[in-house]
Amino acid sequence: xxxxxxxxxxxxxxFLVSLSIIVFLxxxxxxxxxxxxxxxxxxxxxxVLEIFIIQLGWIxxxxxxxxxxxxxxxxxxxxxxDNEITSIKASGQSLxxxxxxxxxxxxxxxxxxxxxxxxxLPDANHRTxxxxxxxxxxxxxxxxxxxxxxxDFTGYTIYTEDVDSRTGVMKGIKIFTDVAEQDPSTTVAxxxxxxxxxxxxxxxxxxxxxxxxxxxxxxxxxxxVGKFHKQVICIQNVDTKFQRTTSDYRSDREKSSSMMLTDxxxxxxxxxxxxxxxxxxxxxxxLRVSKFDSLSQALSDSVSQIDTAEIxxxxxxxxxxxxxxxxxxxxxxxxxxxxxxxxxxRIRSNDLLISEYMVxxxxxxxxxxxxxxxxLIGAPLGIMAKRGGLTVGASYSVFFFIAYWAFLIGGETLxxxxxxxxxxxxWAGNVVIGICGIILTILMLRETTIRFDWLxxxxxxxxxxxxxxxxxxxxxxxxxxxxxxxxxxxxITRKFIRILPTYLISLFLSYVFGVLAAIIVIFxxxxxxxxxxxxxxxxxxxxxxxxxxxLPWIIxxxxxxxxxxxxxxxxxxxxxxxxxxxxxxxxxxxxxxxLPLLFLGIVLSVxxxxxxEKILPTANLLRRELTDNMKNPEASVKKMDxxxxxxxxxxxxxxxxxxxxxxxxxxxxxxxxxVWRESFDNKQIIQRIQAEKMIYDSTGWRFVNGKIxxxxxxxxxxxxxxTLSDTVLxxxxxxxxxxxxxxEEMSYWELRSYIDAAKKRxxxxxxxxxxxxxxxxxxxxxxxxILLGIAITARTGRKGGAVLFGIGLALMFSYWLISxxxxxxxxxxxxxxxxxxxxxxxxxxxxxxALYRKAAR
Length: 857
What we know:
By secondary structure, this protein is an alpha+beta fold. The chain is about 65% helix and about 15% strand. Among the domains are: about 155-235, no CATH class; about 500-630 and about 770-855, no CATH class; about 645-735, no CATH class. Helix 1 runs antiparallel to helix 2 (about 45-80) and helix 8 (about 390-415) runs parallel beside helix 13.
C-alpha cells in the first residue's frame, strides 16, 4: 500500500502541470476566437469573465484524458530513469501491479468524467450558447465620445469636440439630422448638456448659443436659418443593455444522454410511421400499375380484331375506362412519386439526426474510457523508455494524441454522413489504442526496452565507411566556415562579458529552443485536432503552408511563457547543481551574472517588435488568403489597382472645420452623388456647398452642378455653378474608404495611418487604439518575464524543476490573462487604451523589480 500511495502521489503534480498546460493553450485559442466578437459590445467585465469560465467545461473534458497520458509517461519514465523500477523488480515485485493504483485512479476519474459529460457539461454548453446568442444581439453602447461621429441614433449623427463624462457638459456640438418626413438639418452650438431621461428611453440634449440650418425636402430652393440661445432635442435611445434570455432549444451537445435517447426513440417511431406510409403507397402504386397492365392487354386484344381506322376510337374508350374515377392517371402517379420522394427525404433526415445524437451519446462514454486506455499506453511506454520529465511525456504523447483524436473526429464525420455506425465511429480509437496498450504492456512484462541504439549504430556505420572522405572534407577551410560562424558569438561574448554570463546565456538559449519547439508542436496539434472538419478535403501541402504562415503568430503569442520557463530552468539548474552557490562564494553576485541576460531580454523584445512589424503582418495576410482559397488550390487572390467600394450616407472630415457628406460614394468610378460640404467657425456655419455630383480625376476633386451659400458676411450670399474645384479634400477615394487589411495584418505604422483615416471618417477607434498600444506593450513583456524568472528562481534556491515549472506556469497564466482582459476592457471603454495595454506590464515589472533587488543582495 505504501508503494501504491507513493505512485499516486508522484502522479499528482505531473497531472496538474499537464492539465494546466493543455487548458492554457485551449484558453489562448478561445481568446483568439471570442475576443473580437465581444470587444465592441461594451459588456460588463463580469460577463466577459463568465464567458471564459463556462468555456472551461468542454476544455477540461477534453484535457483530462490527455493530461493522464502525459502524467503517466512522465511519472513512470522518471521512476525508470532513476532506477526505482529496477529496485522494485529486485525486491521481487512484478511490474504489472504497479499499474493498479494508476488504473484505479484513472477509473475513478473516468466515472467522474462520465457524470460530468452527461449531467454538467450539457447545461454548461447550453448556457454558453444562450450567452453568446444574447451577446450577438446586444448593440454596442452609444457613448457620446469627443472627436467621433456618433451614428447609433436613428436619424441623428452627433459630433462634439469635447465631453465631460461626469457632468455631461459638451462643447463644439454639431448635430446632423435626417429623420423621415422631416426636413434635413444641421445644428451647431457653442456648448450644451447631455443627460438620460429617468426611464433611459431618451437622450436629452440641451444646446446653448447656436444655429440651425434646414433644407426643404419638397423644394430644395427653400433654405432656412434659425439662431437660438437655448434649444432642447430629445433623441430616442438605442437598446444597449445586455439582456439574458433562456431558450428551451438545445443542440445535440447541449443534451444529456437520456434526452438524446428519448429523441432517438421519437425519431425512430416517426420513421416507422413514414416507412408504413411508404409501403402502403407502394402497394397502391403497384395495384394501379397492375390495372394499367390489364387494361392495356384488353386494349391490345380488342385492337387486333378491328380495323386501323377504329384504333383512335378504341384508345379513347380505353382512356375513358382508365379515368372512370374522374382523375388524370398520369397526374395522380406524379403526385404519388413526389410524395414518395418527400417520405424518403424525411426518413434520411431523421436517420442523420439519429446518427448525430448517437455519436454524442457514445462520445460521452468513449472519452472517459480513454483515461483507462491511456494508462495502458503511458505506464509501459514510460517504463521501457527509461526516461521521464515533461519533455519525454509530451514527446511520446504527441503521436497518440494525433491518432486518438483523428479516430474520434474522423469517425464523427463519417458517422454524420451515415457511412459507418456511431458506435464504430466513437469506439474505434479506443479499441485500436487499447490494443497498442496491451501489446506495450506485454512487452513491458517481458522487460523489453525501447531504444534507438540501432539508429545510432546505423549512422555510425555509414560515418565509419566514409570516415576518410569526411576527414578530408572537414579539413578544407570551406567546411570550417559554418562551425566558425556558429562559435563566433560565443567567442565574442566570452571576450566582453566573461565565461559565466556566456555559460548562462548558452544554457538559457538551449532551453528557449527546446521549450519553444515543444509548445509549437502541442499548439499545432491541438489546433489541427480542433479544425479537422475544416481541413477535410484540403491538400496536405495547403495544410502545411497554413501552419507555416501561422508559425509567426504562434511564436509571438507563446514566446513570453517560453522565455519565462527558459530563464527559470537555466537559473534553477545552476542552483540545483550548486553552481550558483559556488559563484556567490567566489564573490560574484546575481546581478553581475544576470545583467547580460537581461540585456538579451531587451534585444529579444526589439527583435519581437521587428518581427511583429515585418514578418507577422505579411504571414497573417498570406494565411488569410490561403484560408479563403484553401479548398480550391487553383484559385488565386487577384490584386486590384484600386479598392472597389460603394457607400451610402458617407461622412468624411476634410479638416477639423470642414465636413463632407456623400449620399452615394464610389471608388470605381471615382465619383459621388448628392454631396454637400459644410465649413464651420465655432458656433456657426460659414459656408455650405451642395452639388449633384463630385468627381475625382488627375486634377483633384470638383463639384458639378450645385449651389454655394456663404454665411460669413452680414448678408447670406448664394450663387450657382456648373463646376467648382475643391481645395479642402485632398485624399483619393481609395484612401478615404481603405479597409484592405485587418488589424492583425497591419504593422504599427500602417495601423496608425488607418486610425488617422478612420478618425477623418468619424469612426470609433478604441478597438484599434488598443491594438496599436499593445503592439509595443507585448514585446516589452519578453523582458519582464526574464526579469521575473531570474528573480523568482534565484530566491527559491535548489527547488526542483517541477516546482519551478508550476510557479512559472501560474505566473505566466495570471500575467497573460490580466494583459488580455485589460486590453479588452480598454477597447470596450472601461479603461484608457494606454493603461489597458500596459497595466499588465506595469504590475509584473514592479513585482519582478522588487524580487530581483532582493535576490541580488
